[in-house]
Design goal:
- The chain has 425 residues and is α/β, with parallel strands linked by helices.
- It has two domains: 3-77 and 384-423, Roll (Urease, subunit C, domain 1); 78-376, Metal-dependent hydrolases (TIM Barrel), CATH 3.20.20.
- It is built from 17 helices and 18 strands.
- The strands form three sheets. Strands 2, 3, 4, 6, 7, 16, 17 and 18 form an eight-stranded mixed sheet that branches.
- A hairpin with a 2-residue loop joins strand 17 and strand 18 (422-424).
- It is globular.
- It starts with a strand and ends with a strand.
- Bound molecules: N-(iminomethyl)-L-glutamic acid and fe (iii) ion.
């Protein structure tokens, strides 16, 4: 007898399942999106019950709610694994300065950049930050991101870093997007610690990390088993390798999982620290050496590539994602949505840039934006693929071939978004 479920989507031209049995994809598996043609999927209580040929799904399941996806492709909801979506103000003036020749690092060294956004973020009320970030999430969600990681890092003192975490928690409770929180107190040295960066590192370790670890334990994220990450920007004018190691070690000891902004402009040695500490992901990697690529590829740490950054900065040295993929790395993608280096809302645009400049194939870009991005957030057992037992987060596209997501530029192919089994939009 057919099993009753809440929803069946049938007759899809194709479903790119990105199936991986909970594991990240590397090597040949990264090129395989687990395509089923003439496919269907059964969903019950927010969870995928079955996926396969449409006729098989229709014989195994029955549902009060049926969607005929004739002529349409279905993919997992995108997982944006690296963003700074909560911030006050904007940096449109810096965009103009860069067009006229200033570099991102020139602006940062002159006290602009992250610190300028810190000033605006400190001034904003919690409610205003929720409102502005929620509008950004609306855009990201409509472009297919059903899960978005969001970092702090524009508070840069204990009170304002905690304020950002409260904003991030409120967004998760109010918005259709699933949110994963990251503490990035070590994003930049705030002006009150100018020339005293070790004093700021002490503050991060002695005061902020204990405070945010306690915040997490009493937050709904802990109850719902959503991980909490610590991240550090390891770079000139930010944090050196010794400082980076101290902060990451303290975060890991407090029970957070680890991420790092590393090798963006200068390769200082943070990648070795990250791999020694077994971080969940290493992000940026624009100037990673061949030896670094080798070592990263042998590890279980995800390589998060953020090609919208260099596209936005007008730089041509994109991360060696092709080399990383060929060497067997767990390549993942993120927009890096932030007011400075990447005011980018779109995972499809990020994937499209990754195909052109990082030389990922469309299949690799889709896996990097779904199952591997879920792995970079410690959630590959829960989201990132269309497989029985996973959360029912999927996108019905306005086209019959998922490769159009990366082939077309600036067209939103997302027609219907299913998040936790709910049909939204
Ligand atoms: O990932 N590199 C450091 N952090 C961000 C930029 C944040 C900003 O410019 O506000 C990044 O590129
Ligand atoms: Fe970033």
């Amino acid at each position: 007898m057919a099993q009753q479920v809440d929803l069946i989507i049938h007759n899809a031209a194709q479903i790119a399942t990105c199936a991986s049995a909970g594991r990240p994809k590397r090597g040949d598996a990264l090129k395989d999106v687990g395509l089923i043609t003439g496919a269907g999927v059964a969903i019950h209580k927010g969870i995928i019950k079955g996926v396969g040929p449409s006729a098989e799904i229709l014989s195994r399941y029955t549902a009060p709610n049926l969607i005929n996806a004739s002529g349409q492709a279905i993919v997992p909801g995108f997982v944006d694994s690296h963003t700074h979506t909560v911030f006050g103000g904007d940096r449109v003036h810096e965009f103009e300065m860069r067009i006229r020749g200033a570099s991102y690092m020139d602006i940062m060294a002159a006290g602009g950049g992250i610190v300028s956004t810190m000033v605006h973020t400190r001034q904003e009320s919690k409610n205003n930050l929720i409102r502005s970030a929620s509008r950004r999430l609306d855009q990201m969600f409509s472009l297919g991101s059903t899960t978005v990681e969001i970092k702090t890092g524009y508070g840069l003192d204990t009170v304002n870093e905690l304020k950002m975490l409260e904003v991030i928690a409120a967004l998760d409770q109010q918005h259709s997007c699933r949110i994963v929180p990251t503490f990035l107190g070590a994003h930049s040295v705030p002006p009150e610690f100018k020339d005293k960066s070790n004093g700021y590192v002490d503050l991060v370790i002695d005061e902020m990390i204990p405070a945010v670890a306690e915040w997490y334990q009493s937050s709904h994220f802990a109850t719902e088993n959503i991980p909490f990450f610590i991240d550090v920007f390891c770079e000139n004018h930010a944090f050196n390798v010794t400082q980076t190691r101290r902060i990451l070690e303290a975060g890991l000891a407090a029970g957070l999982r680890g991420k790092i902004h590393v090798d963006q402009f200068n390769s200082l040695g943070g990648l070795d620290v990250a791999l020694d500490l077994g971080l969940t992901s290493t992000d940026h990697l624009e100037v990673t050496t061949e030896a670094g690529i080798e070592r990263l590829s042998r590890s279980d740490t995800a390589a998060v590539v953020l090609p919208a950054v260099n596209f936005n900065l007008g730089l041509t040295n994109f991360a060696g994602g092709r080399a990383l993929a060929d060497a067997g790395s767990i390549v993942a993608l993120g927009t890096d949505m932030n007011p400075g280096s990447a005011p980018c809302f779109s995972m499809p645009l990020t994937m499209a840039i990754a195909c052109r400049y990082v030389r990922l194939e469309p299949a690799e870009a889709l896996n990097a934006a779904t199952i591997n991005a879920a792995y970079a957030l410690g959630l590959s057992n829960k989201i990132g693929s269309i497989e029985a037992g996973k959360a029912a987060d999927l996108l019905i596209l306005r086209c019959d071939d998922y490769r159009n997501l990366t082939y077309l530029l600036g067209d939103n192919k997302v027609q219907t978004i299913i998040k936790d089994g709910q049909i939204i939009g």
